[in-house]
Amino acid sequence: MISITGLRKSFGAATVLNGIDLEIRQGEVVSVLGSSGSGKSTLIRCINGLEKIDAGKITVDGFDVSKPRELSEARKRSGTVFQLFNLYPHMTAVQNVALAPIEVLKLPRMQAEAEARELLHSVGLTERADAYPSQLSGGQRQRVGICRALAMKPSYLLLDEVTSALDPEMTSEVLSILAALAKTGTTMVFVTHEIEFARSISSRIAFLDKGQLIADLPTEEFFSATGMALPRVAQFLSKMRKD
Amino acid sequence: MRYGDFTPFDIVLLLQGLGVSLALFVSTTLIGLFIGTVWAVIRFYRVPVLMQLVTFVAELLKNSPVLVQLFLVFFGLPAFLKINVTPTEAAVITLSGNSAAFIYVIAVSAIESVGRDQIEAARVFGLTRWQILRRVIAPQATAFAIGPLTGLLVNQLQVTSLISVIGVMDLTKVGNILNLRTLKPFLVWTAVGLLYYLTAKLVTYAGARFEKRLRAHTAWKGL
Amino acid sequence: MKFDLSILAKHIPFLLEGAWLTLQACTLAVLGSLVLGLAIGAMRTSASPLLNRLAAVYIDIFRNIPFIVQLFFFYFGLPEIGIYIDAFTTGVVALSIAGGAFTSDVIRSGILAIDPGVIEAAQVSGLRKITIFRKIILPIALRASVRPLGSVFINLILTSSILSTITLNELTGSAKIVASNTFRPFEVYFVLLVAYAALTYSVSILIGMLHRYLNRHQEEGAV
Ligand SMILES: Nc1ncnc2c1ncn2[C@@H]1O[C@H](COP(=O)(O)OP(=O)(O)OP(=O)(O)O)[C@@H](O)[C@H]1O
Ligand SMILES: [Mg+2]
């Protein structure tokens, strides 16, 4: 379980997250929605320890991310997929995927690379396994990014706008993989602007507004009268649908 | 006082050495600035033969040790041309030529940094090539070149230390003399190093100040 | 006097011996400055303010003091404190230390140019700091730094001629001997100048090839 209580985070004078409480249990797919600048990315970066939090507590399966000793355990349990892929440019797809299993889980190289190939095969990249990131299309790069996160067999997958750098065709390529993952019971925290897709795969929606979690509802409730009763949510949804 | 100890006069000696280094540094930089710019103008006008020659000489000077250039001028020229070359003359010739080669490279890239379209536009207005160079390119190229020039100057200041090898009484040569007399190498070379260091810092500081002034000036003019 | 190279013919083996010594000194110094440059460059980009400051001071000192002064400091100073090493070792050590300062600057900018997102990806996957440095930061920074490192190494070759001032008969040192034996300094130093230029030119070609080879997968398309 990822448990967030009383999380506060500011950059200088600007408070970006202002008292967040959120729990993500095994098997859930939680989509995080909110307008630009509401703090979604910052929330993800706090969970994987890329940002130091100012107050509150975040634990992943009981490991506190603000304690340096426990952070590495917490990080082993979650995998992150980035908006701009952030692949290692000097490594092939297989090497990208196998690096952490070899270095962190101490798997033998042969085994790690075999597993990496299998993962790449499962996302349709059998042929491109030995290509370098610069030789791949955006959609292919993001599929490698997903494999790299999955290679550590994480309990939780953190995804921050993983399709917003992709054109529509590549987006659907990546989304179908995520849908399949959701079906197999992978726990996901999913930051996105793809409202319809979020609706189709999530069990819950968390809605951030100016650093506060103003809604945390089961998906269907969020998109029904309960959600619409919240002015900010209604405003957000109508604006997103218009775009 | 034993023979071999430091004397208060040694400070004067060190400062004299520094003076010689600085004098050579400043004079050869100015000569190099002039020659290097002339070379760049030759290239700008695409003067046949001369342009290839200039590029070749600059490459040769940039890619060979200054010490060897110095030996060629100081030992080689007198033997070959049957002329007399004093250490100071050899130092001036070599350091000027070397500075010119590097300044040429900086000047060429500074000229190239001014966009082709600006030059085209000026030509449309009927300016001659010389007017374009003076009024359009020179001011912008100077601003562009100050940064790389400062770096070059710090380097050229250090290069002057090599003339001690052919017997010019510069700061390093004074260091040699004091080193031999006092047998206190750490002290002597630390003092010499410190003087060079401070001078280099001064050059860097002056370059930064000058660049700032120049930028402020151009920005103000642009309003 | 005639320009006559034929008299040099019988001195070629001797000059080649000098060239061999230059090659050895430069190869060792390149390795030395790479090791030092990596260490100092890593310190310069580390989160610890103390290490960062120390590295900055090192770079500042060795970049702003002439190499010949540094060389004399070691050559005359080390025996003073009971360290007796030969001219060759002293030369290699001094070249490595000075080269390390320039190398670390290149490494530092190579490291700073890395997309921070790539490093974050490595951090969240649980890699240890040292692993991130070895497997991610270093390979990426080195690939991007091949060309600037090449310039540093070419400068190292040119600077190595200064080792002749501490009685080391590397290429320049042996040329000096040939020049005084044959009374043909012009021919000798002219050939020497061209030889150094040819050497650095071929090194720069090799570096270009190495750069293209190491970056063969990065060329198509950015991101
Ligand atoms: N490193 C930082 N330094 C200063 N301010 C930051 C930093 N990172 C984020 N911010 C600010 O924090 C606020 C929230 O940013 P965040 O990236 O979390 O928003 P977001 O909800 O992910 O937005 P988007 O939908 O555009 O990605 C923004 O106002 C942003 O400018
Ligand atoms: Mg974001």
UniProtKB/TrEMBL annotation, chain A:
Q: Which PROSITE patterns match?
A: ABC_TRANSPORTER_1 (PS00211), ABC_TRANSPORTER_2 (PS50893)
Please indicate if the UniProt record lists Transmembrane helix as a keyword: no
- Keywords in alphabetical order: Amino-acid transport, ATP-binding, Cell membrane, Membrane, Nucleotide-binding, Transport
Q: What is this protein called?
A: Amino acid ABC transporter ATP-binding protein
UniProt keyword ATP-binding present: yes
- Which classification does the entry list for the species? Bacteria, Pseudomonadati, Pseudomonadota, Alphaproteobacteria, Hyphomicrobiales
Q: Where is the ABC transporter domain?
A: 2-235
Broad class of the protein's primary localization: membrane
UniProt-annotated location(s): Cell membrane
User: Can you provide one Gene Ontology molecular function annotated for this UniProt record?
Assistant: ATP binding
Q: How does it sit in the membrane?
A: Peripheral membrane protein
Instruction: Using the record, list the residue span of the signal peptide; answer none if the entry has no such feature.
Output: none
What family does the Swiss-Prot or TrEMBL record give for this protein? Belongs to the ABC transporter superfamily.
* SMART domains referenced in this protein's UniProt entry, alphabetically: AAA
From TrEMBL, chain B:
Please identify the protein, giving its name as recorded: Amino acid ABC transporter permease
Q: What does this protein do?
A: Part of the binding-protein-dependent transport system for glutamine; probably responsible for the translocation of the substrate across the membrane.
Keywords attached to this entry: Amino-acid transport, Cell membrane, Membrane, Transmembrane, Transmembrane helix, Transport
Bilayer topology reads: Multi-pass membrane protein
Recorded hits in InterPro entries, A to Z, give: AA_ABC_transptr_permease_3TM, ArtM/GltK/GlnP/TcyL/YhdX-like, MetI-like, MetI-like_sf
Task: List localization entries.
Answer: Cell inner membrane; Cell membrane
Q: Which domain of life is it from?
A: Bacteria
**Which residue ranges does the record assign to the ABC transmembrane type-1 domain?**
18-207
Q: Which organism is it from?
A: Aminobacter carboxidus
Task: Please give the family membership noted in the entry.
Answer: Belongs to the binding-protein-dependent transport system permease family. HisMQ subfamily.
Segments spanning the bilayer are 20-45, 66-85, 91-111, 186-208
Tell me the Pfam families matching this sequence: BPD_transp_1 (PF00528)
The answer to keyword Transmembrane helix applying to this record is yes
UniProtKB/TrEMBL annotation, chain C:
What processes does the entry annotate via GO biological process terms? amino acid transport
NCBIfam families in the cross-refs: HEQRo_perm_3TM
Q: Which domain of life is it from?
A: Bacteria
Ranges for domain ABC transmembrane type-1 come to 19-207
Taxonomic lineage from the root: Bacteria, Pseudomonadati, Pseudomonadota, Alphaproteobacteria, Hyphomicrobiales
Q: Know the name of this protein?
A: Amino acid ABC transporter permease
Q: Where are the transmembrane segments?
A: 20-43, 55-75, 81-102, 149-168, 188-210
Sorted keywords for this record are: Amino-acid transport, Cell membrane, Membrane, Transmembrane, Transmembrane helix, Transport
- Report the coiled-coil segments: none
Major place of residence? membrane
- Write out the similarity annotation: Belongs to the binding-protein-dependent transport system permease family. HisMQ subfamily.
Indicate how the chain sits in the lipid bilayer.
Answer: Multi-pass membrane protein
Q: Where in the cell is it found?
A: Cell inner membrane; Cell membrane
Any GO molecular function = transmembrane transporter activity
- One Pfam family, short name please? BPD_transp_1
Q: Which Gene Ontology cellular-component terms appear in the entry?
A: ATP-binding cassette (ABC) transporter complex
Species, as recorded: Aminobacter carboxidus
